[in-house]
Amino acid sequence: MVFRRRRRADSDLPAELDGHADDLADDPAGSAGAGEGVEPVRPDGPWDADDAPADELTRLDLGGLRVPVLDGMEVRVEVSPEQQVVAATLIMGSGALQINAFAAPRREGIWAEVLEEIATSLRAGGGSAESATGPFGLELRARVPAEVPGQGVGPQPARFVGVDGPRWFLRGLFTGAASTDPVQAAALEEAFRNVVVVRGNEAMAPRDPLPLRLPQEALDAAAAAPEGPDGPDGPDGPDGRGGIDPFERGPEITEVR
Protein backbone atom coordinates (compact mmCIF):
# COMPACT_ATOMS: atom_id res chain seq x y z
CA MET A 1 0.00 0.00 0.00
CA VAL A 2 1.41 3.34 -1.06
CA PHE A 3 0.72 6.72 0.57
CA ARG A 4 0.94 9.91 -1.46
CA ARG A 5 -0.05 13.47 -0.66
CA ARG A 6 -3.17 14.48 -2.56
CA ARG A 7 -4.44 18.04 -2.66
CA ARG A 8 -7.88 19.03 -3.90
CA ALA A 9 -6.26 21.02 -6.69
CA ASP A 10 -4.78 17.76 -7.97
CA SER A 11 -8.11 15.92 -8.01
CA ASP A 12 -8.95 13.80 -11.04
CA LEU A 13 -12.55 15.02 -10.80
CA PRO A 14 -13.67 18.27 -12.44
CA ALA A 15 -13.93 21.02 -9.83
CA GLU A 16 -17.56 21.60 -10.83
CA LEU A 17 -18.40 18.06 -9.71
CA ASP A 18 -16.35 18.09 -6.53
CA GLY A 19 -18.56 18.59 -3.51
CA HIS A 20 -21.84 17.34 -5.01
CA ALA A 21 -22.41 15.62 -1.69
CA ASP A 22 -23.92 19.03 -0.86
CA ASP A 23 -26.82 18.03 -3.11
CA LEU A 24 -27.48 15.36 -0.48
CA ALA A 25 -27.68 17.86 2.40
CA ASP A 26 -29.35 16.83 5.63
CA ASP A 27 -33.09 16.38 5.31
CA PRO A 28 -34.79 16.83 8.66
CA ALA A 29 -38.00 15.30 7.39
CA GLY A 30 -38.67 11.68 8.23
CA SER A 31 -36.76 9.25 10.37
CA ALA A 32 -34.20 6.68 9.31
CA GLY A 33 -35.61 4.24 11.81
CA ALA A 34 -39.34 4.77 11.25
CA GLY A 35 -41.73 2.56 9.33
CA GLU A 36 -41.63 -0.91 7.85
CA GLY A 37 -40.86 -0.29 4.19
CA VAL A 38 -40.05 -2.87 1.54
CA GLU A 39 -36.37 -3.48 0.94
CA PRO A 40 -35.30 -2.58 -2.63
CA VAL A 41 -34.36 -5.49 -4.82
CA ARG A 42 -30.60 -5.71 -5.44
CA PRO A 43 -30.04 -9.25 -6.73
CA ASP A 44 -26.57 -8.41 -8.07
CA GLY A 45 -25.41 -5.81 -5.54
CA PRO A 46 -24.34 -3.40 -4.21
CA TRP A 47 -24.80 -5.30 -0.99
CA ASP A 48 -26.01 -4.58 2.49
CA ALA A 49 -23.83 -6.06 5.24
CA ASP A 50 -26.70 -8.45 6.05
CA ASP A 51 -26.98 -9.89 2.54
CA ALA A 52 -23.38 -9.71 1.27
CA PRO A 53 -22.20 -12.88 -0.45
CA ALA A 54 -19.47 -15.04 1.07
CA ASP A 55 -17.03 -14.38 -1.75
CA GLU A 56 -13.24 -14.09 -1.78
CA LEU A 57 -12.97 -10.50 -2.99
CA THR A 58 -10.47 -8.27 -1.22
CA ARG A 59 -12.29 -5.27 0.24
CA LEU A 60 -10.90 -2.18 1.94
CA ASP A 61 -12.74 -1.66 5.24
CA LEU A 62 -13.72 2.01 5.58
CA GLY A 63 -16.31 1.50 8.29
CA GLY A 64 -19.58 2.34 6.56
CA LEU A 65 -18.23 1.02 3.26
CA ARG A 66 -16.28 -2.05 2.29
CA VAL A 67 -14.81 -1.26 -1.10
CA PRO A 68 -13.53 -4.03 -3.40
CA VAL A 69 -10.04 -3.75 -4.86
CA LEU A 70 -9.91 -5.48 -8.23
CA ASP A 71 -6.85 -6.35 -10.30
CA GLY A 72 -5.11 -3.25 -11.66
CA MET A 73 -7.30 -0.88 -9.66
CA GLU A 74 -6.25 1.94 -7.30
CA VAL A 75 -8.32 2.96 -4.30
CA ARG A 76 -8.00 6.52 -3.01
CA VAL A 77 -9.56 7.62 0.25
CA GLU A 78 -10.78 11.23 0.22
CA VAL A 79 -10.46 13.21 3.48
CA SER A 80 -12.33 16.47 4.22
CA PRO A 81 -10.77 19.62 5.71
CA GLU A 82 -12.36 18.49 9.00
CA GLN A 83 -10.21 15.35 8.86
CA GLN A 84 -13.17 13.10 8.08
CA VAL A 85 -13.10 10.37 5.44
CA VAL A 86 -15.89 11.32 3.03
CA ALA A 87 -15.54 9.10 -0.03
CA ALA A 88 -13.58 6.42 -1.81
CA THR A 89 -12.39 6.93 -5.38
CA LEU A 90 -11.49 3.97 -7.56
CA ILE A 91 -9.11 4.50 -10.49
CA MET A 92 -8.81 2.15 -13.44
CA GLY A 93 -6.89 3.28 -16.51
CA SER A 94 -8.18 6.68 -17.57
CA GLY A 95 -11.48 6.34 -15.71
CA ALA A 96 -12.49 7.05 -12.12
CA LEU A 97 -15.42 6.22 -9.85
CA GLN A 98 -16.15 8.18 -6.67
CA ILE A 99 -18.37 6.40 -4.14
CA ASN A 100 -20.42 8.04 -1.38
CA ALA A 101 -22.88 6.44 1.04
CA PHE A 102 -25.79 8.13 2.86
CA ALA A 103 -28.55 7.25 5.27
CA ALA A 104 -32.01 6.94 3.73
CA PRO A 105 -35.59 6.46 4.92
CA ARG A 106 -36.76 2.94 5.61
CA ARG A 107 -39.98 3.34 3.68
CA GLU A 108 -38.76 4.59 0.30
CA GLY A 109 -35.72 5.25 -1.86
CA ILE A 110 -34.36 8.71 -2.57
CA TRP A 111 -32.32 8.28 -5.77
CA ALA A 112 -35.00 9.56 -8.18
CA GLU A 113 -35.33 12.76 -6.14
CA VAL A 114 -31.57 13.19 -5.72
CA LEU A 115 -31.01 12.70 -9.45
CA GLU A 116 -33.33 15.61 -10.23
CA GLU A 117 -31.59 17.81 -7.67
CA ILE A 118 -28.15 17.07 -9.15
CA ALA A 119 -29.44 17.67 -12.69
CA THR A 120 -30.92 21.03 -11.68
CA SER A 121 -27.65 22.06 -10.02
CA LEU A 122 -25.56 21.08 -13.05
CA ARG A 123 -27.81 22.93 -15.51
CA ALA A 124 -27.74 26.02 -13.32
CA GLY A 125 -23.95 25.91 -13.51
CA GLY A 126 -23.89 25.90 -17.31
CA GLY A 127 -23.76 22.15 -17.85
CA SER A 128 -26.21 19.67 -19.27
CA ALA A 129 -27.77 16.54 -17.81
CA GLU A 130 -30.28 13.95 -18.90
CA SER A 131 -31.60 10.81 -17.25
CA ALA A 132 -31.15 7.41 -18.84
CA THR A 133 -31.35 3.73 -17.97
CA GLY A 134 -28.07 1.96 -17.22
CA PRO A 135 -26.85 -1.23 -15.54
CA PHE A 136 -27.98 0.07 -12.12
CA GLY A 137 -31.31 1.44 -13.32
CA LEU A 138 -31.97 5.17 -13.51
CA GLU A 139 -28.80 7.23 -13.96
CA LEU A 140 -27.77 10.75 -14.94
CA ARG A 141 -25.50 11.46 -17.90
CA ALA A 142 -24.01 14.93 -17.77
CA ARG A 143 -21.57 17.32 -19.37
CA VAL A 144 -20.00 19.82 -17.02
CA PRO A 145 -17.95 22.94 -17.88
CA ALA A 146 -14.46 22.32 -16.51
CA GLU A 147 -10.97 23.71 -16.94
CA VAL A 148 -8.90 21.57 -19.29
CA PRO A 149 -5.14 22.18 -19.02
CA GLY A 150 -3.96 24.05 -22.10
CA GLN A 151 -7.44 24.18 -23.62
CA GLY A 152 -9.43 26.49 -21.40
CA VAL A 153 -12.93 25.64 -20.22
CA GLY A 154 -14.72 22.86 -22.02
CA PRO A 155 -17.55 20.38 -21.39
CA GLN A 156 -16.41 17.25 -19.57
CA PRO A 157 -18.54 14.10 -19.38
CA ALA A 158 -19.72 12.66 -16.11
CA ARG A 159 -22.14 9.93 -15.14
CA PHE A 160 -24.03 9.60 -11.85
CA VAL A 161 -25.51 6.29 -10.71
CA GLY A 162 -27.43 5.53 -7.55
CA VAL A 163 -28.73 2.52 -5.66
CA ASP A 164 -31.31 2.57 -2.87
CA GLY A 165 -30.70 -0.01 -0.17
CA PRO A 166 -32.28 -0.83 3.20
CA ARG A 167 -31.98 2.50 5.05
CA TRP A 168 -29.05 3.63 2.89
CA PHE A 169 -28.34 5.18 -0.48
CA LEU A 170 -25.15 4.61 -2.48
CA ARG A 171 -24.06 7.10 -5.15
CA GLY A 172 -21.39 6.61 -7.78
CA LEU A 173 -19.82 9.31 -9.96
CA PHE A 174 -18.01 8.07 -13.08
CA THR A 175 -15.56 10.46 -14.75
CA GLY A 176 -12.96 10.27 -17.48
CA ALA A 177 -13.25 7.48 -20.02
CA ALA A 178 -15.48 5.48 -17.68
CA SER A 179 -18.26 8.07 -18.08
CA THR A 180 -18.71 7.44 -21.81
CA ASP A 181 -17.02 4.17 -22.79
CA PRO A 182 -18.77 0.98 -21.60
CA VAL A 183 -15.57 -1.02 -21.99
CA GLN A 184 -13.62 1.42 -19.81
CA ALA A 185 -16.47 1.50 -17.29
CA ALA A 186 -16.90 -2.28 -16.97
CA ALA A 187 -14.34 -2.92 -14.21
CA LEU A 188 -15.47 0.10 -12.19
CA GLU A 189 -19.11 -0.97 -12.54
CA GLU A 190 -18.15 -4.41 -11.28
CA ALA A 191 -16.44 -2.81 -8.28
CA PHE A 192 -19.49 -0.64 -7.55
CA ARG A 193 -21.71 -3.70 -7.76
CA ASN A 194 -19.56 -5.46 -5.17
CA VAL A 195 -19.47 -2.64 -2.61
CA VAL A 196 -20.81 -3.67 0.82
CA VAL A 197 -22.63 -0.97 2.81
CA VAL A 198 -22.51 -1.21 6.61
CA ARG A 199 -25.44 0.97 7.68
CA GLY A 200 -25.44 0.11 11.38
CA ASN A 201 -28.41 0.44 13.70
CA GLU A 202 -27.94 4.00 14.93
CA ALA A 203 -30.62 6.57 14.12
CA MET A 204 -29.56 8.95 11.33
CA ALA A 205 -31.41 11.64 9.42
CA PRO A 206 -32.05 10.77 5.77
CA ARG A 207 -29.20 11.99 3.56
CA ASP A 208 -26.65 12.12 6.38
CA PRO A 209 -23.33 10.67 5.13
CA LEU A 210 -22.55 7.28 6.61
CA PRO A 211 -19.52 7.54 8.92
CA LEU A 212 -16.31 6.39 7.26
CA ARG A 213 -12.81 5.91 8.64
CA LEU A 214 -9.29 5.36 7.42
CA PRO A 215 -8.55 1.65 6.96
CA GLN A 216 -6.36 -0.05 9.52
CA GLU A 217 -3.71 -0.54 6.83
CA ALA A 218 -3.34 3.24 6.56
CA LEU A 219 -3.03 3.71 10.31
CA ASP A 220 -0.49 0.89 10.60
CA ALA A 221 1.61 2.30 7.74
CA ALA A 222 1.54 5.79 9.24
CA ALA A 223 2.59 4.45 12.65
CA ALA A 224 5.45 2.53 11.04
CA ALA A 225 6.78 5.56 9.11
CA PRO A 226 10.46 6.13 10.00
CA GLU A 227 11.65 9.06 12.07
CA GLY A 228 14.04 11.51 10.44
CA PRO A 229 14.12 14.01 7.55
CA ASP A 230 11.38 12.24 5.64
CA GLY A 231 9.56 10.77 8.62
CA PRO A 232 6.63 12.10 10.62
CA ASP A 233 8.85 14.16 12.94
CA GLY A 234 11.30 15.41 10.31
CA PRO A 235 11.18 18.62 8.26
CA ASP A 236 8.60 17.04 5.98
CA GLY A 237 6.40 15.88 8.86
CA PRO A 238 2.87 16.88 9.93
CA ASP A 239 3.99 20.23 11.34
CA GLY A 240 2.75 21.81 8.13
CA ARG A 241 5.90 21.48 6.03
CA GLY A 242 4.90 18.45 4.01
CA GLY A 243 5.44 14.72 4.44
CA ILE A 244 2.91 11.98 5.09
CA ASP A 245 0.12 12.75 7.51
CA PRO A 246 -2.91 10.46 7.01
CA PHE A 247 -5.16 12.88 8.91
CA GLU A 248 -4.32 15.96 6.82
CA ARG A 249 -6.72 17.06 4.08
CA GLY A 250 -5.90 15.20 0.96
CA PRO A 251 -3.93 12.08 1.91
CA GLU A 252 -4.28 9.44 -0.70
CA ILE A 253 -4.24 5.77 0.12
CA THR A 254 -3.49 3.84 -3.00
CA GLU A 255 -3.62 0.08 -3.33
CA VAL A 256 -2.79 -1.43 -6.70
CA ARG A 257 -3.67 -5.05 -7.31
**Structure summary, number of beta strands:** 13
Helix and strand string, N-terminal first?
A: EEEEEEEHEEEEHEHE
Q: Rg from C-alpha positions?
A: 18 Å
Q: Share of helix among residues?
A: 10-25%
What coarse outline follows from CA principal-axis ratios? globular
Distance between the first and last residues' Cα: 10 Å
Strand order of the largest sheet: 5-6-7-11-10-9-8
The major beta sheet can be summarized as:
7 strands, antiparallel
**Residue ranges: pLDDT <50 for 5 or more in a row?**
1-16, 19-40, 231-257
Mean pLDDT: 77
Protein described:
There is one protein chain. By secondary structure, this protein is an alpha+beta fold. It contains three helices and 13 strands, in the order βββββββαββββαβαβ. The protein has helices at 111-124, 182-193, 216-223, and strands at 2-5, 47-48, 59-61, 65-68, 74-79, 85-92, 95-103, 128-134, 137-148, 152-165, 168-176, 196-197, 251-254. The longest helix has 14 residues, at 111-124. The chain is globular and about 45 Å long.
Brief write-up:
13% of the residues lie in helices and 33% in strands. The protein is α+β, with helices and mostly antiparallel strands and 257 residues long.
Which terms would index this structure?
globular, 4-stranded mixed sheet, single chain, disordered C terminus, disordered N terminus, 3 helices, 257 residues, alpha+beta, 13 strands, 7-stranded antiparallel sheet
